[in-house]
Structures are given as structure tokens and as C-alpha cells.
Amino acid sequence: MAGTTMIETFPLRDEAWEDELFDEIQKGDKVWYKNQQGQVCKGKAVMVGPAGWVLNIGDGRPQVVNEGHNYLGHTKSKGREPDNFGHWMNRFKL
Q1: Three-state DSSP class for 24?
Q2: Structural domains of the chain, ranges and CATH numbers in brackets
Q3: How far apart are CA 21 and CA 71, in angstroms?
Q4: What per-residue confidence (pLDDT) applies to 92?
Q5: Among residues 31, 38, 45, 84, which one has the fewest Cβ atoms lying within 10 Å of its Cβ?
Q6: pLDDT at position 68, please?
Q7: Which residues fall within 8 angstroms of residue 90, CB to CB, at 6 or more apart?
Q8: pLDDT tens across 1-57, in order?
Q9: pLDDT score, position 88
Q10: In angstroms, rounded to a whole number, what is the distance separating the alpha carbons of residues 27 and 84?
Q11: How is the chain split among helix, strand and coil, in percent rounded to 5?
Q12: What is 37-69 written as a DSSP string?
């Protein structure tokens, strides 16, 4: 279905997150977060920005996840890689 958000009431047994350390997220990981309505959702980590990790939640729509606000956990993917450029760019604050 185009234009719908992947919303889960709670992670499925075979999809539950394993790691709960925000600093260990890398590009390609599946990240679980809580949306504004309090529903548990998931997305794929794309890049790190100044406000947190940017996720692709489907159809190219972004969602920002940060540690103290809406992050729940993540699972490592097979093709994961660190976002060295994103971390480097966030060192420079205006």
C-alpha cells in the first residue's frame, strides 16, 4: 500500500530489537521508535544528523530519532556501515 506508515502495536517476536544503545546505530540498521501518537514504529537508518538519526520509514519519508525523545531500540543489519561523514559534519556547529 503506497502512502501508509508501518505501524506496529509492539515488535513481532522475530523482529524485536536487540540492542538498546543509541551510539551503536549504523547505516542500514532497523531502528524502532515511538511516534507522536505513542505507537511503536520502525525504519531504516540512513544518516546521522545534528538532531539524531534520520530514518527512512517507507516511500522515502524521513523520521528523525533521538536518544532522549523517541528511540526504543535497534537491530543490526547484515550490510551495516558507520556514517563517518555524518559524524564528521556534526562536529562543525554554527
Answers
A1: helix
A2: 7-89 (2.30.30)
A3: 10
A4: 72
A5: 38
A6: 83
A7: 48, 49, 50
A8: 455 555 555 555 556 666 578 889 999 999 999 999 989 999 999 999 989 999 999
A9: 87
A10: 10
A11: 15, 35, 50
A12: TS-EEEEEEEEEETTEEEEE-STT-EEEE-TTT
Residue 27: all three cell numbers together: 547505516
Would you state the cell numbers that stand for residue 18, as one nine-digit string?
A: 536487540
* Residue 54 β-bridge partners: 47, 64
Contact yes or no for 32/22 (Cβ under 8 A) = no
Q: Which three cell numbers stand for residue 45?
A: 537508518
CB 65 within 8 A of CB 26: no
pLDDT at 21: 87
CA distance 45 to 64: 10
**To which residue does cell 562536529 refer?**
91
The 10s digit of each residue's pLDDT in 52-86 is: 999 999 998 999 999 888 999 999 999 899 998 98
